[in-house]
Amino acid sequence: MFQKILVANRGEIAVRVLRACRELGLQTVAVYSDVDRHSLHVRYADEAYCIGAAPPRDSYLRADRIIDVAKRAGAEAIHPGYGFLAENADFAQACLDAGIAFVGPTPQAIQCMGDKTWARRTMIAAGVPVVPGTHESLTDEQAGAEADRIGYPVLVKAAAGGGGKGMRLVSEPGDLLTALRLARSEAQGAFGDDTAYLEKAIEGARHIEFQVLADNYGQVVHLGERECSIQRRHQKLVEESPSRAVDADLRQRMGETAVRAVRAGGYTSVGTVEFLLDRDKKFYFLEMNTRLQVEHPVTELVTGIDLVREQLRLAAGRHLSYQQEDIEVKGWALECRICAEDPYNNFLPSIGRITDVYEPSGQGIRVDSGIFAGFEVSIYYDPLIAKLLAWGETRGEAILRMKRALSEYKILGLKTTIPMFQKLMNSFSFIGGQFDIYFLEEDFALRGEGEGPQADVAALAAAAYTYRQRRASLMRSLAQQRAQASPWKMATRAGARGRKR
Amino acid sequence: MKYVVTVEGREPRSIALWETEGGLFAELDDQTVRLDAASIDGGNFYSLLVDQRSYEVFVEGREGICAVVIDGWLYEVVVENEQARRAQSLRLAQAGGGRIVVKAPMPGLVVDVAVSAGDSVAAGQRLVILEAMKMENEIRASKSGTVQRLDVAVGDSVMQGQALLTLSEPREMRGGA
Predict the structure, then answer these.
(1) So what CATH class is B2-86?
(2) Which of A27, A155, A386, A391 could cross-link to A364 by cystine, CB 3.0-4.6 Å?
């Protein structure tokens, strides 16, 4: 095993990785941008190095500086977390060239799986079902004809994309070229590659993904599925494991297919194979994520396996410590991604200082967080500030526990997605497991029926607040008038009296 | 003091508030309760006792439009002074709608301006795209109208609350309150 690990990330995921390192007794190195000086990961690590200014391209994306710090600090391995450099094959290669282990798959595997068109071709060759679509980069003229062939609605996707960036849903031919242009510009900005392709949008689809572990010696296991159908703009907001849509037989077939996909891609380390599941329980390979994912803790809660520890062990060249039959899924886990966004104002980023935080805890609750009272949410980074997880013996128990935890969770100073989750956990469709990847945007009402149960208390609180506020401002203006007026009046009066005398 | 309170756009209700030596009292639906609000953080986060019932409540707001969070649920509450409410509806009926200044809801970079001065826009139409936190955020028209003035161009960095453009409401829309 390694002695010292550098974590090339920030926020909750950096803290998550540092925790696993500490449990393994490893020395840790954090890197940070100048606005992150006070961040939790800087404080948690054994050593910390500033690597530049706030914009990611000047710090968290500076592969050269990160590798330089690793050498200076004597770290033998770099954990990239998710986002930033996690799926950058050049960075993984640069680590290896510098004699540093990259905690993740090989540069070749990242390269191949990251190229969605390559991945599609490989999966088709391996007999893994894929979503109908084009698998080459497209000119505008070709796109029109191809979209007609596949049939609308279609998805425009960036070949180098991920996390919903560079992705657009197009329902009518008239919107295709605009969507292509937007997807290309977003992909160019985010990934430096504007290659785009088309895929059929499957109606009523659910997003089901399989967590996999693979060692360097051909051993591959899957840890069951996660359902991530609650999405907005293709960004996952709620994840759970297992899924209401997957029974034992389907789980076995999808799991075997996921393992086949991993072998076909020559993949090692921790990874995720994403599928779409249609209404007829037919599933299609979407893509493989060659990183630890945001939602990995739901799998940890139901399997008891620490994925970061496994990832570190695999990077150190250890054999997988589990056979498929050792993997047991117990109970149900849910995750809500707490984002600094205002769900009631078109999810606009909420930027500013967190004045206070009260985190939920207690039986079955896990919080992976990067925030604290005084933390500044800046425009430079992802709005995800914390992940709230609940485990229960059944899905119903997990939902009740999540509701309880959401009611305890208080993040003061800015807007978060907590109220939306509270509403979601109370919606019949969610409780009944009746949703698809379009549910949140198309069918879920943020406002309207099923309002919160304390409307009367809210009315009283708002009235009392307004009453006090107006009285305070009245007092202030009275005091001001007195302060301004009285010295003059007093002086004049005194003067007048004086003269009279 | 008498207020008309509207929670989440539902039926407005009347709340009377008065203070005595015994504290702050409220009357809602013919029921009188004592309100004891203790700020926990010296700011907007309160432990609220309604008689003996205990709640944790976050309240913030300006000019009578409050956001209240209880148990993770958000309530938008409009609080109007009963007299002011009457005067207001009279004023609205006489005068007219007028102008809407569209402001940046967060700091960011203007990456697209989809309208020009003089354009008429429909409610929900995209006006400006602001980039912040790696995402492009569409700023849309809250009402239909005409673009009276553009205050930003592509490439501008804007502060939160900075004016992006001004819409004027069409004449026939005015006065409807």
Answers:
(1) alpha beta
(2) A391
Asked if B177 and B162 touch (Cβ cutoff 8 Å), the reply is no
Partners of residue B50 in chain A, C-beta under 8 Å = 457, 460
Measured CA to CA, the distance from residue A401 to residue A394 in angstroms comes to 11
Chain B residues within 8 A of A455 when measuring between CB atoms: 7-8, 10, 75
Å from B118 to nearest chain A CA? 24
User: Are the beta carbons of A346 and A304 closer than 8 angstroms?
Assistant: no
- Shortest alpha-carbon distance between residue B165 and chain A (Å): 18
3 state SS of A50: strand
Task: Give the CATH architecture of domain B99-170.
Answer: Beta Barrel (2.40)
Q: Where are the domains of chain B?
A: 2-86, 99-170
Q: Which of A337, A406, A460, A470 has the most B C-beta neighbours within 10 Å, making it the best mutation to test the interface with B?
A: A460
User: What is the number of other CB atoms lying within 10 angstroms of the CB of residue A248?
Assistant: 8
**Three-point CA angle A299, A300, A301, nearest 5°:** 90
User: Under an 8 A CB cutoff, do B17 and A467 touch?
Assistant: yes
| Of residues A348, A423, A454, nearest to B106 (C-beta) | A348
Could A466 and B28 be called an inter-chain contact, meaning their C-beta atoms sit closer than 8 Å?
no
ipTM surpassing 0.85 = no
Both structure tokens of A91:
């960075």
Nearest to A388 by CA among A413, A414, A407, A412: A407
Q: pLDDT per position in chain A (501 positions), as tens?
A: 999 999 999 999 999 999 999 999 999 999 999 999 999 999 999 999 999 999 999 999 999 999 999 999 999 999 999 999 999 999 999 999 999 999 999 999 999 998 877 888 899 999 999 988 886 677 888 889 889 988 899 999 887 766 667 788 899 999 999 888 888 888 887 778 888 889 888 889 999 999 999 999 999 999 999 999 999 988 999 999 999 999 999 999 999 999 999 999 999 999 999 999 999 999 999 999 999 999 999 999 999 999 999 999 999 999 999 999 999 999 999 999 999 999 988 899 999 999 999 999 999 999 999 999 999 999 999 999 999 999 999 999 999 999 999 999 999 999 999 999 999 999 999 999 999 999 999 989 877 656 789 999 999 999 999 999 888 888 888 888 887 765 555 555 444 444 444
